[in-house]
């Protein structure tokens, strides 16, 4: 079997229409990619961030005994999107399977501490290796804010401690904490897909028995007043500031915390809000603009 890929570059406002169009024409999959190397802010859980210009790709299966009429397909698409750049190509079966997998490589966070796509061999078998399915939900370690949180967990004493991962996405931070020795991790996200992804990635890493993950209401019921020794939230500056007081109730006195999804210009505002409840001990920057704020909960 071969696979036909049709790539169309559109403005952000046209993405939904283009996805629907390609799907209605029989695409077995539709993917979105950046057309201009534009950085995106770390999204809120459940959000789907989009670039200003997007390459929308429809993938069509061509059976050996039935060829796709590419010209007719492109002609019809042109009636709906007359001026948008478009190109097509055929891929062999194996090549299509590899197109997204080849984009991922193991990522070293620190010495003896790696993220490893689940289909790849760990570079160091005796290291802390976080196995991850990058396709499930946001959070692969490639983004600076996720990397900063993973780095912080690696140098924080989490052994035999209770950890909260708020806005868990793929669950990578909760899983990392458990692999680093945490006794229990509680994770939450407003996106049901993220809850499922976290469960699956925890199972993949053999730590599901020490993880609780649920939507916020379920999460609050499960905690039942229990407080974390270590708290991490990788979301956005606005929600972080709105949730500061609530977060303060989830962390033990002198418990350690890290916040990410904050750009350099927002650090002062976020720190001012959190200083009511926390001692700000460190601000770490990566990739020029992304920052992590960390410190400890005030004593009771």
TrEMBL record:
Enzyme class: transferase
GO BP: methylation
A molecular-function term among this protein's GO annotations: protein-lysine N-methyltransferase activity
UniProt KW Ribosomal protein keyword: yes
EC number: 2.1.1.-
Entry GO CC: cytosol; ribosome
Entry-linked InterPro entries: Ribosomal_L11_MeTrfase_PrmA (IPR050078), Ribosomal_PrmA_MeTrfase (IPR004498), SAM-dependent_MTases_sf (IPR029063)
Keywords: Cytoplasm, Methyltransferase, Ribonucleoprotein, Ribosomal protein, S-adenosyl-L-methionine, Transferase
CDD domains documented for this protein: AdoMet_MTases (cd02440)
Residues the entry annotates as binding S-adenosyl-L-methionine: 146, 167, 189, 234
Highest taxon listed in the record's lineage: Bacteria
Reactions catalysed according to its record: L-lysyl-[protein] + 3 S-adenosyl-L-methionine = N(6),N(6),N(6)-trimethyl-L-lysyl-[protein] + 3 S-adenosyl-L-homocysteine + 3 H(+)
Primary subcellular site in the record, as a coarse category: cytoplasm
Location(s), subcellular: Cytoplasm
Reported function: Methylates ribosomal protein L11.
Family listed: Belongs to the methyltransferase superfamily. PrmA family.
PANTHER family the UniProt entry points to: ELECTRON TRANSFER FLAVOPROTEIN BETA SUBUNIT LYSINE METHYLTRANSFERASE
HAMAP family (alphabetical): Methyltr_PrmA (MF_00735)
Name of this chain's protein: Ribosomal protein L11 methyltransferase
Gene: prmA
């Amino acid at each position: 079997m071969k696979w036909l890929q049709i790539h169309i570059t559109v403005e952000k406002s046209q993405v939904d229409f283009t996805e629907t169009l390609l799907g209605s024409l029989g695409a077995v999959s539709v993917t979105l990619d950046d057309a201009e190397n534009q950085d995106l802010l770390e999204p809120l859980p459940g959000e789907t961030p989009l670039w200003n210009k997007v390459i929308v790709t429809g993938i069509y299966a061509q059976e050996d005994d039935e060829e796709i009429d590419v010209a007719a397909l492109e002609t019809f698409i042109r009636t709906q999107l007359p001026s948008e750049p478009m190109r097509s190509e055929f891929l062999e079966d194996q090549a299509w399977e590899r197109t997204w997998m080849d984009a991922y490589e193991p990522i070293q966070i620190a010495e003896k501490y790696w993220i490893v796509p689940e289909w790849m061999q760990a570079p160091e078998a005796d290291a802390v290796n976080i196995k991850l399915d990058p396709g499930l939900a946001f959070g692969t370690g490639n983004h600076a804010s996720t990397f900063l949180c993973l780095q912080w967990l690696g140098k924080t004493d989490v052994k035999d401690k209770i950890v909260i991962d708020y806005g868990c996405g793929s669950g990578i931070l909760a899983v990392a904490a458990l692999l680093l020795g945490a006794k229990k991790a509680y994770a939450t996200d407003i996106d049901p897909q993220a809850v499922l992804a976290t469960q699956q990635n925890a199972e993949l890493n053999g730590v599901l028995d020490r993880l609780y993950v649920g939507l916020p209401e379920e999460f609050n019921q499960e905690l039942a007043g229990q407080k974390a020794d270590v708290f991490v939230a990788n979301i956005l500056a606005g929600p972080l500031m709105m949730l500061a007081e609530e977060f303060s109730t989830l962390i033990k006195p002198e418990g350690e915390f890290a916040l990410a999804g904050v750009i350099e210009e927002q650090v002062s505002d976020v720190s001012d809000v959190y200083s009511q409840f926390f001692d700000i001990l460190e601000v770490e920057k990566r990739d020029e603009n992304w920052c992590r704020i960390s410190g400890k909960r005030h004593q009771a």
